[in-house]
Amino acid sequence: MSVTHTPDREPKVTAELAAEHGLKPDEYASMLESVGRTPTLTELGIYSVMWSEHCSYKSSRVWLKKLPTTAPWVICGPGENAGVIDIGDGQAAIFKMESHNHPSFIEPYQGAATGVGGILRDVFTMGARPVANLNALRFGEPANPKTRHLVAGVVAGIGGYGNCVGVPTVGGETNFHKAYNGNCLVNAMTVGVAQTDKIFYSKAAGVGKPVVYVGSKTGRDGIHGATMSSAEFTEDSEAKRPTVQVGDPFTEKLLIEACLELMATDAIVAIQDMGAAGLTSSSVEMAGKGGLGIDLDLDAVPQREAGMTPYEIMLSESQERMLMILEPGREEEAKRIFDKWELDFAVIGKLTDNGRMVIRMHGHTWCDVELAPLFDKAPLYNRPTEPTPPQAEIAAADAPLKASARDTLLALMGTPDLASRRWIWEQYDSQVGADTMIGPGGDAALVRVHGTPKALAMTTDCTPRYCYADPVRGGAQAVAEAYRNIITVGALPLAITDNMNFGNPEKPRIMGQFAGCIEGMAEACRVLDFPVVSGNVSLYNETNGEGILPTPAIGGVGLLKDSTLAIGSGVKAEGDVVLLFGETKGHVGQSLYLREVHGREEGAPPPVDLAAERRAGDLVRGLIEARTLTACHDLADGGLAVGLAEMALRGKKGIALTGLEAADAGLLFGEDQGRYLVTVAAGDVAAVTDAAKAAGVPVTTLGTVGGDAITGLGGGALALADLREVHEGWLPGYMAGDA
Amino acid sequence: MKSAVIVFPGSNCERDIAVALEQVSGHKTFHAWHRDTDLPEVDVIAVPGGFSYGDYLRCGAMAANSPVMRVVKERAAQGVKVIGVCNGFQILTEAGLLPGALIRNQSLKYICKTVDLKVENTDSAFTRHYTPGQHIGIPVGHGEGNYVADEETLKRLEGEGRVAFRYTDAAGVVNAAGNPNGATNNIAGIFNETRTVLGMMPHPERAFDPQHGNTDGRALFTSLLESLS
Question: Are A321 and A287 in contact (CB under 8 A)?
């Protein structure tokens, strides 16, 4: 027999207990002032999660405000569950990227799986059917004993969840670096499509209207997940495994269908998913945004286990749950839909006009506090920043080739950061929905807007080693690369979501990285007309005092109005001519070449000329619109030679290069920005060259498509078969334990 | 050609296969719910891919025992054409409409990629627009596609020409290198005794439209259209 829980059985709240909940002394003092008395345990729990870094953005808010967030096509910027942009014809794209770093490091399968589940809910809660998932992953160095286990678990978790819910996983990126040995990054992005007149927001309205709980039952999983994610790791972090939630993608699939079915009616006033901090943050945010109060009756909350306390129910992060405000009188109609999908449905409270959050259970009141301070008075820190000292420029002559260009290219293509990710993405269903035009392994993914001639292009990008060496350049480069990748398929870049992964913000150097990346991103967003519409911040990515590389992962979305214009990144036809757009100065600082061949991870990263990015981007998009290009690939990690090799491998045809036999390392492997490789029919070369010159974009003719090798590099022909073996071989070999 | 697609909780390819059926036939496909106890008069029933009931029991085991499957079995007995793709194939074996079973991929991993196939038998309503031995490419996406059956069943399937598709390597040769999941005899799809029921792991609806980059699955739908109109 369980004994009914009563308030007198709860521990008394003290400064020590508040500290255990992650509240700093001055934060607890501020809480006492807001509550006006010693809080109850439930109240302390609610305050501690709402004021956690994860929910309050207390260290990052002052900086995030500097990002441009508007454009004529932006329907809803940051602040809602996800960002919303207009894609014409009464349709909107809704998207966001979110981290699940800490849980994934502790329990990779469930951590990654619930990361996917959470970001899907952020998107369908706004009325969109999710149409694509992407993920940006960073793992420790391959030699670290834990890396293989994390890669296997995270990939299986993403696949296990995404495949089951029937949303294709179409793209992403994966890096390996020792800075992530103690903190892997799992950033999941979802893109959905909605009707512009059927977008749902979280702002509650209407005193007396019912608060409705739908989805899975509440259990004891994930209690304090938001607080865990707001602290550094130590050796005993493994003991935090019980704070990791468990995902149920089948229930999520039912929840998507049931919510979209209910959203087709006009019964919903407001809706919000129960993500981090579960019922607490969803109820506080909904009522708070509406300037109202909320009464909750926790006896009515569907519960998975007996004897749960109000504290546990309010802080549980059980997955696959939503909270909504319904129009009065529509409860039966809504319940019928959730009954059909065999999901729990319960009226658990109502909106009030007193601005208070009141929680009752077992005939007792467990919480009775003013709502506004939970978000209005949340701590806000303008933390000290210290800039990263500028790194020296490195001349290409200081890093000469150590082997022939051919052999260097072959070796580079099999290094951890350049090797094929096929082993990862073949575990994801990239085609369900039957609208995927370009899936994983391309520059940007391209997914048709179902039943229309349109397609959405999407990508995730960031080069953390650039951000570490120069946060401002690195931040700009991440945005510029996302822009370029979207251009390559022919789409117009529209907006981004950002996932800011950094170390401990209380350290000035880390906060300086954050501020620098924001500065670079903001400038790139402005010049490229590529505003931020949603995002997420993950701080305290440190283990035993070692921070990760600053990693502002950018998720970009673009629109291709006529999907028949789309082109890929693999060479297409024998005899096509390969051209290079953009200027090559031979920048080897922070290049993968310098790191892999010379063992030097140093120097200034390549500068980003945003005006030149814009000129090149507009040129390429115009040429694709005119159906002049046959393939297009942006140059990034590994530079020109790697870009050529990737185009040849993807198109399964060789390239005969001219004029590169004596090229130096800077020309071949430098990572100058703002460059594209394109192919055109031989007859179009003159016109395309003229167009580039007219647009002020440098253009170089590099060679001709054909054969089964890359020829014309110093050191002789490089057969595609050899290149493929090296490029495809590394990751499967590593995962099998060979490397 | 009139068609129905069966929707279970957790199905996720019902729209994709309905699009293909509707585009070739010009008729709207009826979507049946797992609790339905009757179906309209149709010429073909599609059991789609996905994760019916989450695949939390054996794949397809719960769906095979749902109310709607009683109707599907009745219609199949009357000669109505039934095609099960991926999870649909698993459901048809669990329902006893096709022999054998689909177990965990030999690699123990989910696999999504375009596989090479050999069309083994073109004498059916589903495959008549292919040529015998034709080498085609169609995407798979599954974690449990490893076909197994007892010796006697395999002998009958092979002897009676009931293997519809077999996995091959890129050169079209049936061998272990071209087998994505460990399926016995590289079996990718089979017919029932009357060749009116087809189960297959590859998704023809994902190789249907020129924008899929591959239209090798289209002939399956045009075969049905010609057979049924």
Answer: no
d(CA A653, CA A709) in angstroms, rounded, equals 7
pLDDT single digits (tens) A239-289: 555 667 889 999 999 999 999 999 999 999 999 999 888 999 999 999 999
Q: Which class would CATH give B3-228?
A: alpha beta
- pTM comes to 0.96
Superfamily classification of domain A567-739:
PurM-like C-terminal domain (3.90.650.10)
**Residue A619: C-alpha distances to residues A476, B121, B193 (Å):** 20, 51, 60
Which positions of A make up the binding site? 57, 96, 98-102, 121-122, 245, 273, 317-319, 498, 535-536, 538
CA distance A684 to A150: 48
Put simply, the answer to whether B205 touches A159 (Cβ < 8 Å) is no
Phi, psi (degrees; rounded to nearest 5) at B61: -65, -40
DSSP H or E run through A689: helix A685-695
Q: Looking at chain B, which residue has its C-alpha nearest residue A159?
A: B110
Residues of chain A in Cβ contact (below 8 Å) with chain B: 156, 159-160, 163-166, 248-251, 253-254, 341-342, 425-434, 436-437, 448, 563-564
* DSSP assignment of A324-337: EEE-TT-HHHHHHH
> What phi and psi, each to the nearest 5 degrees, are found at residue A396?
-60, -30
CA distances from A367 to A118, A285, A310, A361, A588 (A): 27, 16, 9, 10, 60
pLDDT in tens, A651-701: 999 999 999 999 999 999 999 999 999 999 999 999 999 999 999 999 999
Residues B141 and A431: beta-carbon distance below 8 Å: yes
Q: How far is CA A620 from the centre of its chain?
A: 26
Contacts with A2 (C-beta within 8 Å, 6 or more apart), sequence order: A306, A307
CB B69 within 8 A of CB B36: no
Residue A76 near residue A92, CB atoms below 8 Å: no
Pick from A639, A704, A628: nearest CA to A668? A639
Question: What's the CA gap between A15 and A48, in Å, rounded?
Answer: 12
Domain spans in chain B, listed from the N-terminal domain onward? 3-228
| Backbone φ, ψ for residue A83 (5° rounding) | -90, 155
Please state the ipTM of this predicted complex. Answer: 0.97
Q: Identity (one letter) of the amino acid at A340? A: K
DSSP one-letter string for B77-128: HTT-EEEEETHHHHHHHHTTSS-SEEE--TTSS-EEEEEEEEE----STTTT
Structure tokens at B224: 């049905």
